[in-house]
Amino acid sequence: MIRLHHLNRSRSHRILWLLEEIGQPYEVIAYARDAKTNLAPAELLEVHPLGKSPMVEIDDRLVTESAAITEVLCTRFAPQMIPDAASDAHITHLELMHFAEGSVMTPVLLNLYVGRLGEAGAPLHPRIQAELHSHFAYMERMLRPSGHFVQDDLSAADIMLSFPAEIVLRLGFGDTFPRLADFVAAMQARPAYARAVALGYE
Ligand SMILES: N[C@@H](CCC(=O)N[C@@H](CS)C(=O)NCC(=O)O)C(=O)O
Known about the structure:
Largest sheet: 4 strands, mixed
CATH architecture of the largest domain: Up-down Bundle
CATH class of the largest domain: Mainly Alpha
CATH topology of the largest domain: Glutathione S-transferase Yfyf (Class Pi), Chain A, domain 2
Number of helices: 9
Order of helices and strands: EHEHEEHHHHHHH
Radius of gyration: 17 Å
Helix content: 40-55%
Shape: globular
Bound molecules: glutathione
Structural class: alpha+beta
């Protein structure tokens, strides 16, 4: 049995979408962000000491970290979404799976938090903007002519990179990175993505 610990308006949405793509039965335990702090509720700390979402239970094994969850779900239920382990594409797959949380999210989160400092954060803005731009430009360049990352059909990297790609648009960079804008539109047009949205969890 697969059980997703899902926090509203979070990285967990890409796992909900992935679960719809792979077509395995699953259940969702929904958590709501605190209305004032926007943080996860304390109940998530009862599941894991970090108290973050997504988390997935697969046959009673708790799996944390979006990239690990995506890798485990694809390996078990949708192996076509991961390039063959001996291929060059598999190395690109690994690079982008790590990039999605380990690289691009650093300037994204710095931009969010330093932005709250107002004038006090101003000396950091140019560096953060430059890092945001170079990471988004790298994503734009890594998109294949098919409009996917890594493979010419949906892959685990597409799932992982959908979250930062949606942030590119939210930050107003859609015109600067039109291929990323097309990628987001294509992923959101997939029936499985629409089914995940229709579940109404946010
Ligand atoms: N690297 C982790 C990040 C998990 C994470 O930070 N999740 C956020 C949601 S986008 C969260 O739970 N935030 C609530 C909080 O920190 O209180 C992953 O990819 O799963």
